[in-house]
Amino acid sequence: MKKVLPVDFFARPAPVVAEELLGKYIVTHIDTKPTGFMIVETEAYEGVDDLASHASRGLTPRTTVMFGPPGHFYVYLIYGIHQMVNVVTHKKGIPSAVLIRGVEGASGPGRVTKFLNITKAHNTLKAAKKTGVWFEDRGVGANASEIKRTPRIGVEYAGPHWSQKPWRFVLTP
Questions:
Q1: What pLDDT digit, counting tens, does each position of 41-80 carry?
Q2: Predicted TM-score of the model (pTM)
Q3: What does residue 160 show for φ and ψ, rounded to 5 degrees?
Q4: CB 87 within 8 Å of CB 10
Q5: Among 53, 44, 42, 43, residue whose Cα is nearest residue 13
């Protein structure tokens, strides 16, 4: 069973979506053929108060997509070399997103984006077959006992309250 995830799936708080994306698939075109990879690691960023989120700096040209409707991609460049792919969550006006940190075959958000052939050109695009990158439920899912929750990685600058939020989710074997 392959079911494209609808916008409603993403129209919820980022920590909920981040956890429920584990075991789902991100599908993109590799060698012109749609190929899906199971999502095994995610990280949530929720609202303007989340000091680890780019949205905490307010509405800027870079963060506009995060304030928009759910189910769109937020792709940005970090350290001038790595592109990171996120999917916007919650509802329009509440800037939230889930970073895809790992898929089967690639670990680390910069490697994931490169592995999936996702680029800055995907920024603001809707996650849908017609745009070439989408999410599917293939009936696998993840059991609560298979999910490890940890603090997010590399956000110590946000202070102890925000950097220690257990909003990183890892699918364990």
A1: 999 999 999 999 999 999 999 999 999 999 999 999 988 8
A2: 0.95
A3: -65, -35
A4: yes
A5: 44
